[in-house]
Amino acid sequence: MGASAGGHRHRIVIVGGGAGGLVLATRLGSRLGKPDRAEVTLVDASLTHIWKPLLHEVAAGTLPSNQEYVAFLGHARKHRYHYQYGRFDGLDRSTKRVHLAPVVDDRGEEAIPARTIPYDTLVIAVGSLSNDFGVPGVREYCDYLDNHKQAEDIQQRFLTQCIRAHVAEVTPQKETMGIAIVGAGATGVEFAAEIHKATHELVDYGLSHIDPERDVRITLIEAADRVLPALPPRLSTATLQQLGELGVDVLTGETVSTIEQTGIHTSSGHFIPARLKLWCAGIKGPDFLADLDGLEANGRNQLVVDDTLRTSRDDDIFALGDCAACQLPGSDRPVPPRAQAAQQQALALAETLERRLEGKPPKRFVYRDYGSLISLSYSSVGNLMGNLIGNVTLEGRIARMAYVSLYKKHQLALHGATWLGLMSAAKLIRPGAEPRLKLH
After folding, report:
1. What is the arithmetic mean of pLDDT over 386-404?
2. Which of 130, 193, 312, 321 could form a disulfide with 20 if both were Cys (CB 3.0 to 4.6 A apart)?
3. In what order do the strands lie in the sheet with 372-375?
């Protein structure tokens, strides 16, 4: 059943190499590539992958090691799938082809021409983007944290602002370095804590004219009545307490009205001065999903799928992760946009596509919530849920260990147990071989 009607191997094309797409390509390539049961191709607009929950550390400069990046070309060779570098630029369902835009280099010259890729089965796994909700000034003056290029740009601006504060003459009128974060979900909360840690560590690296308590003001703005509104109230309370201990100003029940170059205006009349402004107040699917050759999408540009992750209007197209509108069984609530959900969907869909080649019925996806963990740099808070232990709230070192284990699980799915063991041992052997911060 591995061959299609035209005599070729069944062609599975996965668009998007995020937490779900890369796990799916890895699993299918390893299982179907070697016996030549299918030809698996992964398309991504970047040359490397990084686990999205780590982006706040990249943005703060506290994750300087390139070991956390996965190079698609090398990974594809090892796991027997093909990699195509390019940005998705359209879909022709009638001819079953994916269109890729030309790749342009830094000088504006075409480096790779436009291409089309044929498929028999297509998987859309393009993730999500920040939703600005039409607030004036967001696109012009705010940074987003949707990919590692944006995270690296934020790190550069943050480091420049710190150096500027360091060289400024110490006077009563010395300008405070304002950092404002809109949205107190997991990303906003974690970035606030991480940027606080980075500022203090930069002092140790020689920027001694900065007094983090005097010269830096971090403000977290949330429209809901508490931080982490999607998580249990006990986690919100514990997180708010730790943010307070770090000196982070938290404004809840505040909606943003406009944003300008020098700061943020709220609907209640507050003005928060800030040169570095991060917008993480909500997500949506990429705009092109709203009208993708007739596929059904919801109001947040997410493709509507059934409980097998198959799109509602095309039996040969599937979607997973943040770009898929997948409902929880027996509920009108969607599967939450978390990395653990994308990975679970990828593993379920891998089994479905294998069964599809054998003419067997698909596997139905059932989301299992294993809990929520929030990293606050110096510690973590969270809750774990399971059939054996019930609902357990964690804090401090144990929660931090559990948070790290989530990333280890992702690495295990990508690289296997041997690689994970060797890399973990290497980090234990030489923990001080690299600087704690990215300083360039």
Report:
1. 52
2. 321
3. 372-375, 380-386, 390-395
The stretch 256-275 carries a mean pLDDT of 96
What is the architecture of the domain spanning 10-128+285-357?
A: 3-Layer(bba) Sandwich (3.50)
Token duo for residue 301: 């540009």
Most confident range (mean pLDDT) of 137-151, 158-172, 206-220 is: 137-151
Stated length of the chain: 440
Task: Count Cβ atoms below 10 Å from residue 145 Cβ, excluding itself.
Answer: 23
Distance CA 280, CA 99 (A): 30
Interatomic CA distance for residues 138 and 115, integer angstroms? 33
Residue pair 344/307 in contact by the 8 Å Cβ criterion: no
CATH number of 138-278: 3.50.50.60
Domain ranges of the chain: 10-128+285-357, 138-278, 372-429
- Rounded to an integer, what distance in angstroms lies between the CA atom of residue 270 and that of residue 264? 8
SS3 of residue 56 by DSSP: helix
Q: pTM of the prediction?
A: 0.88
